[in-house]
Amino acid sequence: MSAQCVMVLGTTSGAGKSWLTTALCRYYARQGLKVAPFKAQNMSNNARVVGPHAPPLCGSLPPEGANSPWGGPAANWPSGGGEIGSAQYFQALAARAIPDVRMNPLLLKPERDTHSQVVLMGQVDEVLSAMPWRGRSASVWPVIAQALDALREENDVVVIEGAGSPAEINLSGSDIVNMRVARHAQAACLLVTDIDRGGAFAHLYGTWALLPEAERALIKGYVLNKFRGDATLLAPAPQMLQDLTGVPTVATLPMWWQHGLPEEDGVFDDRSITSGAVTLTVAVIAYPRISNLDEFQPLKNIPGVRLQWVRSPSELAGLAATDWIILPGSKHTSGDLAWLRQQGLDGAIARHAGQGGAVLGVCGGLQMLGEALIDPHGIDGNAPGLGLLPLVTVFEADKTVCHTQTCFDAGICGPWGTLAGVSVAGYEIHHGQTQQHPAMAHSGDVARPVLPGGLGWQNGAGNVLGLYLHGLLEDPAALQALFGSHLRGPVPTLDRVFDGLADYIGHHFAPGVLAGLIA
Questions:
Q1: How far is the CA of 41 from the CAs of 24, 49, 73, in angstroms?
Q2: Dist CA 225 CA 441 (whole Å)
Q3: Which of 21, 192, 226, 473 is disulfide-compatible with 196, CB 3.0–4.6 A?
Q4: Distance CA 487, CA 285 (A)
Q5: Continuous segment of H or E residues that includes residue 43
């Protein structure tokens, strides 16, 4: 077997590459084909855990009584694993494939503006992390090519996602993610642009014009994404562009705010909030190095719940005591904690907690809620915490990356009391290990453990909860427990989202184009 390859390129970041790749994965999988996604290099702090023998995901709906949002019993998950970008994880689910480190062999996780942690084939590589950016390509390209070739041998179709723009000519000499991959796979390429930004035809033409002739020949169609209005008004531009380049415009995709796919990077748009009366606001602190923000996507699909991204105290001023504040994960906990204090958000969060308001910290957010961050290995940095939980975090050289199945203690209380006795599944990605602050425990200030193994604590009042478990708000059992009164039907599933994406492109692409790409 040697797969046909379809590649989605973009004129810019944010043009729509990730969601279109996801849609194509499900579209081809529904044709009875064996499909896998691939992105040579992803830069994102949104990552998922995959195992050496990954769980039986296959994109199906969870079986009766299962807790895994990914479609298989969580008890079958492996205990260890590696990291890939969240976008490729969801693309694998859309393809009804088992997520695999080969689908995203190189993951860059930004820690500062000029430094990223480098994850190669699922594992942190300290040598590559210390290497100059342009010097990495020669070292990693053989690994990338081998991963792609292996996927091609095992599948009928590989849907490849590019990064940024293929016309970044300052980077072409060290390219390992765009046209070098396209040439290696001889992929049929789609070039997508965000027409809502303006200048779409110039972006398409300019991108095509900057490519060498051999690479231009791989471009099989243009896609106009996020169009609002009457598509007939685009004429005669698509034909003029085809006359100039020989490449047809094969799809005009209308603007679609509520497709339901988790965002790869960037916060969600308030224009996509739930319809109807808002009965609960969930305010997520959007610090600069926020990570794994995609795990909050399910909240957008729950009637009556508004997901709000917050960067200033004024945005928290209108919260009711029943509303939530979430401190999400962070790729640089001490740095984001310093930023939070600079904005004055520490005081606003403390006031909300002091009034009995719900505060949830996830991973890095849990670490911030404690008394102190201690960093003996230079991993993240020392810092005083927010002091809302009597805990202390020590950063360790080794990184915890694993799937986790666990059960909430029967004693959990407060806004989270409905989770008592609920079995949940998720994943861990963290350097720090957190425990009760000894001196505070001696004085009687003790955090209540709510998950075994140091995975979760709450304060004595019950309104502040800290967890190392990512994915709680994706777990159907947890969603039902926390938001059952909001739901008018079953918990929304990603599988329905993937089918909706496939239906959408099947309707809006010109007849025969999608089949022709793999002919």
A1: 19, 16, 30
A2: 56
A3: 226
A4: 25
A5: strand 41-43
Is residue 470 among the annotated active site residues?
A: yes
Strands 329-330, 290-291: pairing is antiparallel
What's the pLDDT score for residue 363? 96
Strand, helix or coil for residue 76? helix
The label of the residue with tokens 């972006």 reads: 203
Task: Give the amino acid at 413.
Answer: C
pLDDT of residue 161: 98
Question: Going along 363-413, which residue ranges are E strands?
Answer: 372-374, 383-384, 391-407
Q: Are 408 and 467 in contact (CB under 8 A)?
A: no
C-beta of residue 277 within 8 angstroms of C-beta of residue 244:
no
What is the structure's pLDDT at 303?
A: 85
The three-point CA angle 178-175-139 to 5° equals 125
pTM of the predicted model over 0.90: no
Look up residue 357 and give its amino acid.
G
Report the candidate in 196, 162, 225 with the shortest Cα–Cα distance to residue 8: 162
Q: Which of 184, 352, 437, 470 is catalytic?
A: 470
Q: Please state, in angstroms and rounded to a whole number, the distance separating the CA atoms of residues 327 and 8.
A: 34
Q: End-to-end alpha-carbon separation of the chain, Å?
A: 15
Closest CA to 199 of 236, 162, 237, 232: 237
Angstrom CA distances, 452 to 256, 448, 455, 456, stand at 42, 11, 6, 7
Phi, psi (deg, nearest 5) at residue 43: -110, 110
Cβ-based neighbour number of residue 121 at 10 Å: 20
Report angle CA 283, 287, 293 to the nearest 5 degrees: 65
| Spatial separation of the C-alpha atoms in residues 93 and 495, rounded to whole Å | 8
Q: How far apart are CA 283 and CA 498, in angstroms?
A: 27
pLDDT for the residue 248: 98
Phi-psi region of 330 (alpha: psi -120 to 50; beta: other; left: phi over 0): beta
Low-confidence ranges of the chain (pLDDT < 70): 1, 51-81, 114, 263-276, 487-492
Phi, psi of 289 (to 5 degrees): -105, 35
Structure tokens at 19: 């969601």
Give the model's pLDDT for residue 271. 45
Closest to 289 (Cα-Cα) out of 221, 349, 374, 363: 363
Tokens of 414: 């407060």
Q: Provide the 10 A C-beta neighbour count for residue 356.
A: 13
Nearest to 355 by CA among 315, 319, 309: 319
* Residue 413 designated active-site: no
Which H helix or E strand runs over 349?
Answer: helix 345-354
Tell me how far CA of residue 64 lies from CA of 58, 69, 390, 484, in angstroms.
Answer: 16, 12, 39, 17
